[in-house]
Amino acid sequence: MEALEEKEEVEKPPEDAISLNISDFLDELELDAEEASALSDESDFDWSSIDTSNLPSSYKTNSQQEKKLLQLADHFFQQYSHLCPERKPLFIHPLNECGVQKFVSTTVRPTLLPYPDMYYWSGCASFVCDYLIMEPLKCPITPPSSLYSPTTILKYQRGNCFDFAVLLCSLLVGAGYDAYCVHGYATLEMCSLDQTQELCPRLRKPPEVPEEEDPNKYRIKYPLEPQSQFVLQQKAKKEEETESTQEEEREEEVVVEVEKPKRDPLHGLRVHAWVLVLSGKRKVPETFFINPFTGNHHSTKDECFLGIESIWNHRNYWVNMQDCRKGCKELSFDLNDPFCWEIMFSESNKASQLPTESPENDTDDMQEEEEIDMSFEMPLSWVDRIKVSCREYENPFPRGKKVILYDKAKQEKWAAYANADGLVERLTVYADSDRTEELEVKEWFKHREDLLYMREVDHQTLLITDHFKPGHPLLLKAHTYTSLEPETGHTVEFYHTARVDGLWKRFETAKEMTEYFMGREDFLHMRHIEFGERDLGVEMAGVTAEANARPIVEIKEYFHRNPEKPADEDVEERVFMVIDDVIQLTYHLELHDTIASKVVFCRVIGREKREDEIFLSRENTVKYQPWSSEKHKNMRHLYNLLWELRAEQKDLKQLVRDSEAEMLNILMVREDEEANIKLTVSLYSTAKREQQHE
After folding, report:
1. Residue 313 domain-assigned?
2. Distance (Å, rounded) from C-alpha 172 to C-alpha 174?
3. In what residue span(s) does the CEP76/DRC7 peptidase-like domain sit (predicted)?
């Protein structure tokens, strides 16, 4: 408090500039406060009816150390009220569920829950915001008169912002974070959990990293194209005229638009509690806020946070002495700075930092003794151990599911195994703010035996995309379709590293099929097949699609460059025109070439085709080969090449039929998986296994 007195003596600005003028605001906003308090009474839960008879004795009484702590807190509060009469009362020792005054720092119970996600701040924050039901403060401009224990809050799964913050801070401190509960002020949207004006986090795009261009001072600077100044002036005049006419039309026409949110009459006065996480521990690079209602991460410069009164953790209590006219943007979170933060109890480790040399006079001895006596060891928390069972952890939603409304979006969440198809989350994107016209739906699944984890449905294109985790029997990664009927347009992606042929994508329609490859030794990266129409007479006879296969019209293959071969011997494109009996080879280009080398083998007109016969002449061979090697000019070499191509064409036809059969098998398996959805139970999911056993 000495820092407070020095600050008061050094800086004495006019009271009108510092004071919040709360009394003036309350007179003007009395009706608004009554409306806000009326809205807060809509909750149908009566906290006065809870049973406190089975609570431990620490909930109902105070120990001697706790009584001393309350006396010191009262003394601190009296000094604070005397030195800062314009500030609002501190939130220091509210009543607990048993009607006993408890210091707020002792309400924080550091706990590390035995679940992997609870070791990280994101897991703790998501659990708190999902597990508890939000209740508004009875009066939006004053802190609550009571602060219940985290165990009671977990038992009844509801609470206000202070209850949320204390529970989250207890979990974060137990996980090793340097976390603090914050008593401050925030916007109406944050205090009332209104996210209808915000963009859904699932729809936020990651920030694009700008590509750094290498500066080159010797780069040629091309002259700009000459432009007529008269033409530019005329364009500017036309733009000004169009803008003026548009403004007039806007003023004349009455357009029904979504009204912007009106200015909150209680802006800057609405009390809110959240969590502060300082950098340092757990390798946190930067200090940040956590809104316990949403579990979202916020910067300390976020405009939604309008000011801070005080912060506390399980060890101490700090009062903010900085100006909050600009919100929290310019606040310093160096808690060791006495001019920014007034600490309630001097920490015991600071007493050891006093000089150990013998002082010159007795007054210095007295001052040192007083400083040492001022240190106070915070008593242990009176709250019982925080426990969350496996069943409670796996089913965090008290109402079965959770619905969050965003700007043009709606997010729904379910507990695992709540739905028979494994659905745990659904995000619906709308075209309008009233959420009437659906554009896209995304669904997330868990514990599916077919390893499906996400499904996207585009209502504009009617395309459905299923995404699979690694391990599917058919090595599926994604499947895009409009219907599970064959030859209706399917795009299938595979985990190519698990396949022998390196296939990672296949696109199939009734008339064509395209396959994409990666990491093949023959450098093949794409294969395109064109099909003809089936024989109508065979279809009318009732023959199956497998027996009446689509005729193959053309097969194209594309290869990457093989650096071990000369460009004139490395094929880039290979075309098999099956019906016309034409084979065309196109080779890669050398650095100095402009036209690629080609070889075309055509069918001889008037000669019948035989499978075991190859007829080669200069008439049915067209080539452009700027080669220096003599072997490429030899007809025997071309004969051997044509013989190899005939054999490969036969193998390619079989590969195409195998691809068609594989697609039919994929559709049959997917149709069966969707008709008979099965969920897997992990060996570590004890709660689900107990439920199955019962």
Report:
1. yes
2. 5
3. 271-344
Structural domain including 79 reads 51-179+302-343
Q: Rounded CA gap, 573 and 386, in Å?
A: 68
**How many structural domains is the chain composed of?**
2
Cα dihedral 586→590→595→601 (10° resolution): -20
Give the residue from 372, 376, 435 showing the smallest Cα distance to 403. 435
Domain shared by 473 and 588, yes or no: yes
Q: Phi/psi zone of residue 635: left (φ > 0), alpha (ψ -120 to 50 degrees), beta?
A: alpha
Tokens of 143: 């802190």
Whether the pLDDT of residue 14 is over 50: the answer is: no
Tokens for 379, please give them. Answer: 């008593």
Query: ∠ at Cα 214 (210, 220), nearest 5°?
Result: 120
Does residue 656 come out as left (phi exceeding 0), alpha (psi in the -120 to 50 range) or beta? Answer: alpha
How far apart are the C-alpha atoms of 650 and 655, rounded to whole Å? 9
CA–chain centroid gap for 102, Å, is 38
Question: Tokens at residue 366, please?
Answer: 């007295």
Q: What is the pLDDT of residues 351-380, one digit of tens each?
A: 333 333 333 444 444 344 444 344 678 899
From residue 682, alpha-carbon distances to 686, 687, 693 in Å are: 8, 10, 14
> 71 and 342 in contact (C-beta within 8 Å)?
no
CB 299 within 8 A of CB 314: no
- Please report, as a single letter, which amino acid is at residue 550: R
Measuring CA to CA, how many Å separate 668 from each of 396, 514, 657, 662, 674? 37, 20, 17, 10, 10
What would the two tokens of residue 426 be?
């659904």
Task: For residue 298, list its beta bridge partners.
Answer: 289
Which letter does DSSP use for residue 321 in this model? -
Which of 46-55, 207-216, 437-446 has the least mean pLDDT? 207-216
Confidence at 425, pLDDT banded by 50, 70, 90:
very high
Q: Is residue 523 located within the same domain as residue 647?
A: yes
Length of the chain: 694
What's phi and psi for 369, nearest 5 deg? -65, -40
Q: What is the reported pTM?
A: 0.77
pLDDT above 70 covers a percentage of the chain that reads 77
